[in-house]
Amino acid sequence: MIAPGRARGAILNCAVLLSLLPLQQATAHDPGLSSLTIRSRPNGLETALILAVRDAAQLVELDADRDGIVTQPEFARGRSQLEAVVAAQLTVAPDGKLARPEFIRSRLDENDNVEVHLDFHTAVVSTLEIQSKLIASLPNGHRQYLQVQDFTGKTITEELLSAAADRATAQITTPNASVAVHETISSFADFLGLGVKHILTGYDHLLFLLGLLVVARGFASSLKIITGFTIAHSFTLALATFGLAQIPSRIVEPLIAASIVYVGVENLLRGDNPRARQLLTFGFGFIHGFGFASALRETGIGSRTGGITLPLLSFNIGVELGQIMVAAAALPIIWKLRANPVFVARWAPACSATVILLGSFWFVERVWMN
Questions:
Q1: How far is Cα 277 from Cα 223, in angstroms, rounded to an integer?
Q2: What would you report as the CA-atom Rg of the chain, rounded to the nearest whole angstrom?
Q3: Interval 254-279 mean pLDDT
Q4: What residues contact 1, with CB distance under 8 A and at least 6 apart?
């Protein structure tokens, strides 16, 4: 004989799986189900809301040209308004105290689903109350699959919410100290690796740095350039991450491309080892820092143990490690080549011209093709 609790869980799981089938391939045809997943962390909560783009368009205007298709540029224009609506209508109350999201981000994925992630920094939680007021603003009959997980990822509560029953309560087990330490180490390592990966695959940042180093004469000059760039971008990365200063990516990305063009032009006009190169690097480093912040925001800073500070620190260290790896590999080659007068007279200018061409291409692409 099947226990009542197990039978209820099996029925619920079947209902959820059947409802999710159209969400994956045909969310535009039957947007009747969304999902809300909340995972406990030792010092916070991760919340992920996933809904069909048509449902998201019920909350805010996303289809600006009303052609029935929400494009990435259209979503980018409505993103901040959508995030504000979700933050206002999704209530999370750890131990009866209303929590405000410390960080929120969203994206439109390749399957026309909208993902909205909210991160809450809280003390240890024993009871979690959730209310999704969003359901009342969605089409009649909409259901929302709620899943609450503990710090190990184990599901402790799952419900199908509706406009008439939009509340749920979960009991969360307190993690012990060893789990908290493991979470901290895991978070640090994840964001450290993310920082390294971002700089190694951030070809615009790398080209800017190599454009600076190709005319550097020795170790001292190169060290000053890298240090100035590091200090500047670390400053604006922190400002942007903590929400103290923000510049839209549609402005930052073309400016990064423009900085690459400027470096290449200066290399050609001023020749070998341009003056005040450290000051130039420092100034443009501020702009690149906002670019790093955009990448960090999109990946979920604040969603792990330690709130914002730990991910910010580890991501920045990862960026610096990536820079050091690139510099350690490139500088010996550059210095060896610069010992040849032919390289200084012909090939160094050719490298700078290539920097200008690539930077110009990215500038045009980011201004007129996005």
A1: 12
A2: 25
A3: 82
A4: none
Q: The tokens of 205 are what?
A: 């940042």
Whether pLDDT at 85 is above 90:
yes
3-state secondary structure the chain: CCCHHHHHHHHHHHHHHHHHHHHHHCCCCCCCEEEEEEEEECCEEEEEEEEEHHHHHHHCCCCCCCCCCCCHHHHHHHHHHHHHHHHHHEEEEECCCCCCCCEEEEEECCCCEEEEEEEEECCCCCEEEEEEHHHHHCCCCCEEEEEEECCCCCEEEEEEECCCCCEEEEECCCCCHHHHHHHHHHHHHHHHHHHHHHHHHCHHHHHHHHHHHCCCCCHHHHHHHHHHHHHHHHHHHHHHHCCCCCCCHHHHHHHHHHHHHHHHHHHHHHCCCCCCHHHHHHHHHHHHHHHHHHHHHHHCCCCCCCCCHHHHHHHHHHHHHHHHHHHHHHHHHHHHHHCCHHHHHHHHHHHHHHHHHHHHHHHHHHHHCC
Tokens 């200008």 label which residue?
Answer: 356
The pLDDT mean for the chain works out to 80
Q: Rounded distance, CA 83 to CA 103, Å? A: 10
Tens digits of residue pLDDT in 39-56: 887 677 889 999 999 899
Write phi, then psi, for 242 (nearest 5 degrees).
-85, 5
Tens of pLDDT along 306-324? 456 777 788 888 888 998 8
Contact partners, residue 4, CB within 8 Å, separation at least 6: none
| Minimum mean pLDDT range among 60-64, 185-189, 191-195, 330-334 | 185-189
Name the token pair of 54: 């048509």
> What are 44's strand-pairing partners?
41, 121
Q: Which amino acid is at 161?
A: L
- Provide the β-strand partners of residue 263: none
Name 149's bridge partners.
39, 155
CB distance 294 to 233 below 8 Å: no
Distance (Å, whole) CA 321 – CA 197: 10
pLDDT digits (tens, 9 = 90+) for 273-307: 556 677 888 888 899 988 888 777 665 554 444 45
